[in-house]
TrEMBL record, chain B:
<dbReference type="GO" id="GO:0016987">
    <property type="term" value="F:sigma factor activity"/>
</dbReference>
<dbReference type="InterPro" id="IPR013324">
    <property type="entry name" value="RNA_pol_sigma_r3/r4-like"/>
</dbReference>
<protein>
    <submittedName>
        <fullName>RNA polymerase sigma factor SigX</fullName>
    </submittedName>
</protein>
<keyword id="KW-0804">Transcription</keyword>
<dbReference type="InterPro" id="IPR007627">
    <property type="entry name" value="RNA_pol_sigma70_r2"/>
</dbReference>
<keyword id="KW-0238">DNA-binding</keyword>
<dbReference type="InterPro" id="IPR039425">
    <property type="entry name" value="RNA_pol_sigma-70-like"/>
</dbReference>
<dbReference type="Pfam" id="PF04542">
    <property type="entry name" value="Sigma70_r2"/>
</dbReference>
<dbReference type="InterPro" id="IPR036388">
    <property type="entry name" value="WH-like_DNA-bd_sf"/>
</dbReference>
<feature type="domain" description="RNA polymerase sigma-70 region 2">
    <location>
        <begin position="9"/>
        <end position="74"/>
    </location>
</feature>
<keyword id="KW-0805">Transcription regulation</keyword>
<dbReference type="InterPro" id="IPR013325">
    <property type="entry name" value="RNA_pol_sigma_r2"/>
</dbReference>
<comment type="similarity">
    <text>Belongs to the sigma-70 factor family. ECF subfamily.</text>
</comment>
<feature type="domain" description="RNA polymerase sigma-70 region 4">
    <location>
        <begin position="122"/>
        <end position="164"/>
    </location>
</feature>
<dbReference type="InterPro" id="IPR007630">
    <property type="entry name" value="RNA_pol_sigma70_r4"/>
</dbReference>
<dbReference type="InterPro" id="IPR014284">
    <property type="entry name" value="RNA_pol_sigma-70_dom"/>
</dbReference>
<dbReference type="Pfam" id="PF04545">
    <property type="entry name" value="Sigma70_r4"/>
</dbReference>
């Protein structure tokens, strides 16, 4: 068959007939993204959180070693003491550990704030709240684990369904789809976190099994604390996956220094206590103490009275005393003395309520309070079990 | 950022510049990201804009630079396949698909658009500016920092190159008679 004859005039007139293509986003969306973005993106220092993780691990190791050697004699001589005396000793050890750790922690905070912020203000709005079921109407939940000081802080974004419809051809994109689409846009430093996302390598999913294929020179295994940050981040970011398989470039299971072949990471819910964590930028988040798993809700809730370290704070107002009773349908928290919520900073009250709710949630139950003078506080009806948060720490969307 | 400047630039040029980007890189999301980068660079340099060229050609020249930087980065990443996790490259790969608006055109036009990719970058750029964006020879010259003569020559060569490539393709499978 002979070729069609193309001539210059015909090509030119066809080129003139190409359609107009419009940006379908509303002007406000373009403006908002722009308005919140730092004008100049600082150079990514992907090794920094890994190094912080490594140093944090070493520092704690050295401190523990020195405390053990300091107190070894004391403990031995005290061995005839009662259980409660031992407990006290343990508590005082912890506080001494905290005391010694704190100057370093502070200076690391200072350094970090200079590093991350410069003259900028934190992008997170005052008062970070959890996401509840009713917030999901018309929105898609996108969770991520962000990092600072070798801690992983779970955060949530609510993406309007209209944007999801525009950005994805399929309905209900998975966390991996969401991550691949949006993680690159996230400016963590603007929120006061360290640069960690998007993670190196390539993420894909087959059903509910995700695969993270890592480049050879990744440094997620720089130290055991770096590995912990990495696996925690995977768990908090890909919560809808049954497991995340970590692979090398040849497609084999990745081998991490110190631990060998990395087992698939499973984001299944764990039974943790939640605490208040304040970033260098001054925003307070609800963060689980990943280091401890508890058998029961009362055990976890009572553990909240004691900060496990300098960074995770007891979120209970004025460290008030309370009792916990686990019921069939809920967990009851009763304050020993009448508690007037109006006497406290609103954000502190919310932090307490939400951290308690999040802790109870990891045991699959809502929390109900008694011993409070108010019958309701903001959106919460305190006379019945509180709504269970879907996810902690909502940050504003669009990403900046 | 000066709000009133944003609103004025948006109202006057946003859709034109966005269209320029999407015809270049094909992918809508990527164009949104590049558009964002264009604004960032515009506001960074706005105080230094001296009015030697028109605001319109100044914006297009920034958009051109943003797009070229993107292509350069992608090329570097493709050469080093074990480089950073790169969702932009993934998008670019998937954006082999032509924009939806183009896919609705007749086969000849789709073929013509695809054939643009076989031209040199300069030729593709000139075709998009001159025909899709309707920029004059003088405006195109200003955006690219060329003489008008070079724009005319490049445009002429681009059309010739398109004709030759299209004519050499198998008529039956390539386009409807």
């Amino acid at each position: 068959m002979p070729n069609k004859q193309w001539d210059d005039d015909q090509i030119e007139s066809m080129l003139r007939e190409f359609p107009k293509i419009k940006d379908e986003r509303p002007k406000e969306e373009v403006y908002m993204r722009l308005n919140e973005k730092k004008p100049v993106k600082t150079k990514t220092k992907r090794w920094l959180p890994l190094l912080v993780a490594a140093l944090a691990f070493i520092t704690v190791g050295v401190l523990i070693a020195s405390i053990i050697s300091q107190n070894g004699m004391d403990s031995a001589s005290d061995s005839s003491g009662s259980e409660s005396a031992k407990d006290e000793a343990a508590t005082s050890d912890t506080s001494r550990l905290n005391d010694q750790a704190s100057p370093e922690a502070e200076s690391s905070n200072d350094a970090n704030s200079i590093e991350s912020f410069g003259t900028e203000e934190s992008a997170a709005s005052a008062g970070i709240q959890a996401v509840y079921e009713e917030d999901l109407a018309g929105n898609t939940l996108f969770t991520m684990g962000l990092t600072e000081n070798a801690f992983v802080i779970p955060v949530s974004f609510l993406i309007p369904d209209a944007q999801i419809a525009r950005d994805f051809s399929q309905e209900n994109p998975t966390s991996v789809d969401l991550y691949n689409r949006y993680a690159g846009q996230l400016d963590e430093q603007a929120y006061g976190f360290e640069e960690y996302h998007p993670m190196l390598g390539r993420l894909s999913a087959n059903g509910r099994i995700a695969e993270h294929m890592l480049p050879e020179d990744h440094q997620y295994d720089l130290a055991s604390a770096s590995i912990e940050v990495y696996t925690r981040t995977l768990k908090e970011t890909f919560k809808d996956m049954d497991e995340i398989v970590v692979a090398d470039e040849q497609g084999n299971r990745a081998e991490f220094s110190q631990v060998g072949i990395l087992e698939p990471v499973k984001p299944a819910p764990e039974k943790h206590a939640f605490y208040s964590y304040t970033t260098a930028g001054g925003d307070t988040y609800s963060v689980p103490d990943y280091g401890m798993d508890y058998e029961s809700a009362p055990e976890a809730l009572l553990a909240m009275k004691n900060s496990p370290n300098d960074f995770l704070e007891n979120p209970i107002l004025q460290e008030l005393e309370f009792e916990v009773l686990e019921k069939e349908e809920s967990v009851a928290v009763t304050f020993s003395e009448p508690l007037d919520l109006n006497g406290f900073d609103e954000q502190a009250v919310r932090q307490m309520i939400e951290n308690v709710s999040l802790t109870a949630k990891s045991f699959g139950k809502p929390v109900e309070f008694s011993g409070m003078e108010q019958t309701e506080w903001q959106e919460f009806n305190l006379q019945e079990p509180l709504p269970v948060p879907v996810a902690p720490n909502q940050l504003q969307w669009p990403l900046n | 950022m000066n709000d009133s400047v944003f609103h004025r630039l948006y109202d006057e040029y946003h859709q034109d510049v966005f269209q320029f980007l999407i015809y270049l890189v094909k992918n809508r999301h990527l164009s949104e990201d590049l558009m964002h980068e264009v604004y960032i660079r515009v506001f960074k340099a706005y105080d230094r804009f001296e009015g030697k060229s028109s605001e319109k050609t100044w914006l297009f020249s920034i958009a051109k630079n943003v797009a070229i930087d993107h292509f350069r980065k992608t090329a570097v990443r493709q050469k080093h396949s074990m480089d950073y996790f790169d969702w932009e490259t993934q998008q670019l790969v998937s954006s082999e698909k032509i924009p939806e608006e183009v896919s609705l055109l007749n086969e000849d036009k789709i073929l013509l658009y695809k054939t643009l990719d076989l031209c040199t970058g300069d030729q593709k750029m000139v075709i998009i500016m001159r025909f899709f964006q309707d920029l004059s020879i003088a405006e195109t010259a200003e955006v690219l920092g060329w003489t008008e003569g070079k724009v005319k020559t490049t445009q002429h060569r681009a059309i010739k190159s398109l004709r030759e490539k299209l004519s050499s393709m198998e008529g039956g499978e390539a386009h409807a008679e």
